[in-house]
Amino acid sequence: xxxxxxxxxxxxxxxxxxxxxxxxxxxxxxxxxxxxxxxxxxxxxxxxxxxxxxxxxxxxxxxxxxxxxxxxxxxxxxxxxxxxxxxxxxxxxxxxxxxxxxxxxxxxxxxxxxxxxxxxxxxxxxxxxxxxxxxxxxxxxxxxxxxxxxxxxxxxxxxxxxxxxxxxxx
Length: 170
What we know:
Elements: H1 3-8, H2 20-39, H3 41-65, H4 83-94, H5 97-102, H6 108-126, H7 129-137, H8 141-169
Helix pairs in contact: 2-3, 2-4, 3-4, 3-8, 4-6, 4-8, 6-8, 7-8
């Protein structure tokens, strides 16, 4: 397996015979939480940013190598390219992290991880509004990575709203 394929499939998780996108999201969640808790949010942010930028160019190179004219999130039917899911999950984890740290009720950090995953999955799967427009109309790596990153930001902000709402209840 080439380095490009290893990167685009997020260490082979996109090659899983069952639910490759879900497997990639779960692996990204576990690795993101491990990085966040051991090395800090700055490290996870720099990793997510680097993976996002490299992912745009690598997806474009993959597209040229495969002679694919128009490639976006909807045309990746087999689910092999899942690096966008990793970057999106990482951004979704980063945004509510400081909010979760500042909340006084128990298990706020754990809830932020669960809500980040669920809200990212919701936005990435449903692709409402601008996320769907980017996924459908922006071709190449920018469309694939852009829709996932925007889903990550939307999921992160939804997680903040949920955490703050729970905080108001307690």
